[in-house]
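Students often ask what a 'structure token' actually looks like in practice. Rather than answer in the abstract, let us consider Nicotianamine synthase, a protein of 303 residues. Its sequence is given first.
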Amino acid sequence: MICEQDMLVDKVCELYEQISRLESLKPCKNVDMLFTQLVLTCLPPSPIDVTKLSPRVQHIRSKLIRVCGEAEGLLESHYSSILASYHYPLRHLHLFPYYSNYLKLSLLEFTILSQHCPHVPSKIAFLGSGPLPLSSIVLASNHLPTTVFHNYDIDPLANSKAARLVSSHADLSKRMVFRTSDVLKVSQELKEYEVVFLAALVGMGKEEKTRIIDHLAKYMAPDALLLVRSAHGARAFLYPVVDPCDLAGFEVLSVFHPTDDVVNSILVARKCSLPTQDLAPVMLFSNGDMIEEGLLHANEEED
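Now compare that with the structural description of the same chain:
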């Protein structure tokens, strides 16, 4: 009898085969349909551990993450161009099909960040902002109205498209800076930031992601916060996984695994200024539940 996990893996592999036969990953009816099916397949909470899958499936997962990253970049670029055609682009963000997900993700990240940041950060770095920097825009507009955002991307075209979106906004055009650079070449500048966001698709392979995190640990200011986007369960077919143990040089403060339509997990860590043996236990969250030192505490709702 085929178990649920096997059915999930078979479906993901089948969708990968269909996606790999596409002539282009640019947004169109067929591309949108296949990636929607893929996301809906991977979205339900699953106990699957992708590290224990067969080498063949591991290889497919690795290729699938890169394909998803390419498709996501093309989708964002497409909608960035559409939005830029309006006189006031930021009034039309709802046209992007996943805008509501960014609203939820940004609220989650701000809420978790607020638990560990004693004051409103004056300057934040977002690494891997892309041509449609919705995270920075939503955070700057809705949650951090005085914070300056420095957005880094390796692609100069992505940065020019992103800058065009905020150029007509009197406030955000002053608080959103776009810099073209490879993350591994951003070094001394990192000491300026109280908070650094690492986008999910910056470093798609485990080795590449680890190298980036080690670089951040070397150059970020002591006690600065790092917010890393990861994936959990079947969602790890869509995005790379970052485990708490990967964050060498950081004190992991909390991990959040959403179980709704927010795809990315969120890890918050503080750049170490203490020996690792003195660090406090990590807090793990999953949709309101908290695990601390192995004990589960369900948050009680007040009447």
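One point worth highlighting: Residues 275-281, 288-303 have pLDDT under 50 and may be disordered. Ask yourself how you might have guessed this from the sequence alone, and why that guess would often be unreliable.
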